[in-house]
Amino acid sequence: MIAPASIVKVGRRARRAISCSYGQLRRGPATRPGLRILMYHALGTPADGDFLGIYSIAPARFETHMRYLVEHYRESLVPLEAAALSTDRFRVAVTFDDGYRDTWAVGAPLLREMGIPFTVFVCTGAVAGQRMGFLTSDELRTLAAQPGVSIGSHGASHVRLTECDDRRLRDELVDSRHYLEDLCGRGIVLLSYPHGAVDRRVRDAAATAGYQIGGCSRFDCNAVGRDPLILCRTDIWADDDISVFEQKLRGDWDWLRWIHSDPASCSGC
Fold first, then answer.
1. What span, in angstroms and rounded, lies between the C-alpha atoms of 173 and 170?
2. What is the rounded distance in angstroms from the CA atom of residue 51 to the CA atom of residue 27?
3. With contact defined as beta carbons under 8 Å apart, do 37 and 80 qualify?
4. Would you say residue 265 lies in a domain?
5. SS (H, E, C) the chain
6. Is residue 264 situated within a structural domain?
7. Residue 6: CB partners within 8 Å, gap ≥ 6?
8. What total number of domains does the chain contain?
9. Structural domain range at position 114
10. 266 inside domain
11. Residue 267 lies in a domain
12. How many CB atoms lie within 10 A of CB 72?
């Protein structure tokens, strides 16, 4: 995962200046072709462990983002599980990590009204343990039954999977998948790696556990040929106004992909 602390310490103005310069230097179409996966977390309530204050977006700002998507990219909006990497045509998928209750209470009604499909990656231990601020089992079941909603795993206990031994790794992947399948009454093939922690061993374990699509935390757009179990995503932060949101959609912030190695190309990142 790109360490948010190292990015935030650069400073808001500096980050934006770099992105503006990168956007001006970048050649090609207005938007980088491929599948752009947006990654959100909380909508207004505190995000777990968010010491930097970047992962809880005000509902009004989130609504502004979504209305911009509908106005400018409606034909590009796709469900994540249907977004096969068979074309370089620009497409956008909306995802949420962790499974906060506000995804159901705030995000889902707005997205349903706008006709935007979205995916929720759920930390099943938070649901099963009835942790404050996270979805209840009944809310998750209701959410999963709504049209346009996809459910995926975010592990059982939100640990870094790269730090798990083989047995713990299997349990994190398999137990969370089975929990969601039993609760939602559907097959679960989508996965988001907690903390973005994935390497080839974790990727292969996810495939063995039955997952078909996996999202990491590396900034980039996904072109044809990208491993579907290590898809890049674009992190959306609390201070992303509409101009930054537009830049991130275009690819002007994709310079962040160079901060860390690509987990799709190394065994121990």
1. 5
2. 36
3. yes
4. no
5. CCCHHHHHCCCHHHHHHHHHHHHHHCCCCCCCCCEEEEEECECCCCCCCCCCCCCECCHHHHHHHHHHHHHHHHHHECCHHHCCCCCCCCEEEEEEEECEHHHHHHHHHHHHHHCCCEEEEECHHHHHCCCCCECCHHHHHHHHCCCCEEEEECCCCCCCHHHCCHHHHHHHHHHHHHHHHHHHCCCCCEEECHHHCCCHHHHHHHHHCCCCEEECCCCCCECCCCCCCCECCEECCCCCCHHHHHHHHHCCCHHHHHCCCCHHHCCCC
6. no
7. 259
8. 1
9. 4-259
10. no
11. no
12. 13
Q: What is the pLDDT along the chain (269 residues), one digit of tens a residue?
A: 444 555 555 566 777 777 777 777 766 667 888 999 999 999 999 998 888 889 999 999 999 999 999 999 999 999 998 766 777 889 999 999 999 999 999 999 999 999 999 999 999 999 999 999 999 999 999 999 999 999 999 999 999 999 999 999 999 999 999 999 999 999 999 999 999 999 999 999 999 999 999 999 999 999 988 999 999 999 999 999 999 999 999 999 999 888 878 998 854 44
Structure tokens given for 267: 């065994």
CATH code for the domain of 161:
3.20.20.370
Angstrom distance (rounded) from CA 111 to CA 117: 7
With vertex at residue 111, the alpha carbon angle to CA 12 and CA 74, rounded to the nearest 5 degrees, is 80
Residue in 162, 107, 166, 104 with CA at minimum distance from that of residue 136: 104
